[in-house]
Amino acid sequence: MQFRWLIASAVLLTGSHAGAAEVSLRDALAQGAQSSPRIAQARAQAEAAEARARQAGVSPNPEISLEVENFAGTGPYRNVRSAETTLALSQRLELGGKRGARMAVAGAERDAALLAYKRAEADLARDIRIAYAELRAAEDRAVLARDNVAQAEELARSAGLYVEVGRDPPLRKLRADALLAEAKAEQARTFGELLTARRALADLIGSSDSELSSAGFDDGVTPPLLPPATPTLDEQVAAAERDAARARIRVAQADAVPDLTASAGVRRISDGRETAFVAGIALPLPIRDRNRGNIAAAGSDSLAAEAALAQVRLDANRAQHDARMLLGAANERVAALSGPGLAQAEEALRLARIGYAAGKFSLIELIDAQSALNAAREALISARLDRARALAALNRATAQ
């Protein structure tokens, strides 16, 4: 067990800012945008939608056919002398506005895919901001835990000396040893959190460096309030999907109109070596299949997309409001915790140490002063982390 404590302490010391690869938030955002698989996927999907939009405007290919009749039969048709050969070209003519409706759907899907690409970038930026802040908080907690171990070791040494000279009862030494064990356990916990935070950020930005270090909390700039009725990125995606759903109604209605196939060709009659032109048209009879089911389904899908857009608007407004409220509260906490209260807790600990060394304060009073300072520092770390999370959420909620 003691060996594991030593290993954890050694890694914490070597994993400090001096030995780790420091990365700024700006660099992390740029690196993530270049190497993230989710961005690559969204980009490829947008390119695929663009290709489908180009394909949607293409008309059906013409067909060429070769038909041989009246041969290999009986009587005068036992050979190919009476055969008739027809070479024809046919073209399916799309009716009912199929091509235009198809192009409208593909265009709306392309717009939705491009907006989804931007949404993926915004989602990744939010996740990187949060992971970066969590790494910084884990680093600060690891340093705090390391300092606490050093102070607990010094306290245990002092308590042992005072017990030996008879100034304090043996119970004081046991209490100091227990405090040291708690500090080491906390150090091991913060070490695990630090490793997890490093790995999380490295995965998001596509880095293989296992010793990433943040350059500090990056408060960034609070995004301004959006003008009234300004659609957020999520609303734009939902609106594009709504437009695509509406366009699919036109496609379903156009599919109910049968297409006309026109053909023309040349027929050669072997007996007289004569030729003649042939022409024809073919039109399906819409007796059984009028595409009513697909038309009804497309209408329902359009209603669902309209409702989804309304829900996204509600969610977007709530997300902006909640993020701003949380950011304001976090700013107040950071200002309060980093003010005179922290300095007073540090001064109280200094005086408690002097008083304990002079025999005026007990060990319990010194431990209380140390615990109060640790609680203040931990609260400040948590408040800064909450502020970074709220700012990341607000940036995402107001993304355009």
Automatic annotation (TrEMBL):
Q: Per its record, what are the GO molecular function terms? A: efflux transmembrane transporter activity
Record lineage: Bacteria, Pseudomonadati, Pseudomonadota, Alphaproteobacteria, Sphingomonadales
Give the similarity note.
Belongs to the outer membrane factor (OMF) (TC 1.B.17) family.
Which residues, if any, are the signal sequence? 1-20
User: What organism is this sequence from?
Assistant: Novosphingobium olei
Keywords for this protein = Signal
Q: What is this protein called?
A: TolC family protein
What the entry lists under Pfam families is as follows: OEP
